[in-house]
Predict the structure of tRNA uridine(34) hydroxylase.
Amino acid sequence: MSKDYEVLLYYKYVPIENAEEFAAQELAFCKSIGLKGRILIADEGINGTVSGPKSVTKKYMDHMHSMDKFSDLWFKINEADDFAHKKMFVRYRPEIVSLKLEEDLDPNQITGNHLSPAEFREAMKDEDTVIIDTRNDYEYELGHFEGAINPDIKAFRDLPQWLQENKDKFMDKKVLVYCTGGVRCEKLSGYMVREGMGKEIGQLYGGIENYGQDEATRGDMWEGKMYVFDERISVDINHVDPSIVGRDWFDGTPCERYVNCGNPECNRQILCSEENQEKYLGGCSHECRVHPRNRYIEAKGWSQAEVAERLAAIGESLPESAATN
Ligand SMILES: [Zn+2]
């Protein structure tokens, strides 16, 4: 059944004059048509994910396509039941994806080979190839390509250093990189080409998003789901033989439910069932469970005695200082 809303994912590296002013204009336009989402605009281009009723997303796409610079802008479209965002943000930034290379580069000048989903799948099957997931650790944990390396980074800007430290693993091999919609790989693969990392660098054009929708691949060889930075949290990619790779933080059983640790100073994203979240008082560790500002306990409204009882059930107790309060 067809749905009433759409989520759009898009980017383009193209010089934008007066980008800061352009960002302000775009914000006004997006608000005026009732679009929601997050758009980053820099002197080097645009990167966005927005959502709305189909009549609204159409207006937005027509608006972008009416500008010469964006007449060929490629929107990856996903149907949805509702808005995937709460608000509309358009921000002017130094980069459309924050990589912060010491020496910046233009992906229109230097970048890895753009591979279609079918080409990327073929390339993944090559024994001499190393596949590197360029996303963050929590994105990898929910789903990834079979056999892909997890650099286990917390933020994208940490990746160049990881690559430098691990280049022995792929220096004399063919390398494939991929990300959600393709934008992160543009500069990153350019950096790898510049640094001579790998015999050949290929990037998945249109990202995992496009790979899942592509008629030829339909998400084949993708394991688990794909993490997305909006209200949906995750989306299906593999329509051939779907599987679950996410594991419950507490008991290791298959799980795809994301929550944030209750300790506001930790805020770690973990996968866990509703049951285990309650059992472990919403905290990823003992320290987080007994943190005085644990939001999960606050929301539940548990008394000190109830907290003590629940901790006892998992073999833990309140620290001395808190217990004597
Ligand atoms: Zn925590």
